[in-house]
Amino acid sequence: MKVKIYVTHKKGILDPQGKTVETALLSLGYKNISGVKIEKYIELEIDGKSKEEAEKQVKKMCDELLSNPIIEQYRFEVEQ
Amino acid sequence: MKFGVIVFPGSNCDHDCYDVIKKVVKQPVSYLWHTTTKLDTFDCIILPGGFSYGDYLRCGAIARFAKVMDALKKFAEDKNKLVIGICNGFQILCEAGLLPGALQRNKNMHFICKHVNLKVENNHTSFSKKYKKGQVLRIPIAHGEGNYTCDKKTLAELKKNKQIVFTYYKNNPNGSMANIAGICNKQRNVLGMMPHPERASEAILGSEDGLLLFKSIESALNIRH
Hints:
Chain A has one domain (2-79): Mth169, Chain: A, CATH 3.30.1280.10. Chain A has two helices and three strands. A three-stranded antiparallel sheet of chain A has the order 2-1-3, covered by helices on one side. Chain A has helices at 16-27, 51-66; strands at 2-9, 40-45, 72-79. By secondary structure, chain A is of the alpha+beta class. Chain B is an alpha/beta fold. Chain B has a single domain (3-224), classed as 3-Layer(aba) Sandwich (Rossmann fold), CATH 3.40.50. In chain B, the strands form two sheets. A nine-stranded mixed sheet of chain B has the order 2-1-3-4-11-10-9-6-7, with helices on both faces. Chain B has a two-stranded antiparallel ribbon with strand order 5-8. The longest helix of chain B has 14 residues, at 211-224. Chain B is globular. The interface between A and B is medium-sized, with 10 and 18 residues.
């Protein structure tokens, strides 16, 4: 199964990369853009009996290593 | 009294720390590879600056799972033992949960390497007892992710328990909350700070303001022995 994990800044946490890219886009003349955010995208393959089991495992991975709950949140998709 | 400097793959301030303890403070010190599991013969452990595991994923996120970290957690439970994390060491201590909060990207996105002014907020710790409260120190920083962040509740607790040991004075270089440059745990035996006292412990390096931090540790450990 293929797993796609997206790690993003929590609401209210500064995203300096997003802000910098937003400023760059505005200075290039894209005046109608706002809310630029830069996310982390992690992809992995997982062997498991069921999708549910894989989801449980991925959640554990995200809590343990892949995200820092103080500043980040995550979402993921498991594709069969 | 014995100091240990943990070496992770990618640590690069380990030699500076070792040198200051050995040649300036003149106390016994050893390097400790990240696979070490025995820390009981040591009194103070230093987590040096650098880029452990290439700063991959998040700074300190991989180092936190090094073998030595379980031993370090046990070590830190004893309030008579001291742990100091400098720069990447601070990031590792936060990731490991030995200190609250997290260090995120500097507000202006730049890697900043320069001397800054620090203010001593609390001199009632084993790491700062030789300073005067309110004393302003000139110590260099060198980091891209030093922007200290935590939730409101944690910040209120840090203030209430006087866990904020050092703040940036007048100019905050990285956007950290409450101008935080260094904090300790509630038990006051674990300190994390972004500035590098080991780079400011000899006159030839332009500042000796960091030396009193190591002298404070020496004095605190001397009293206990």
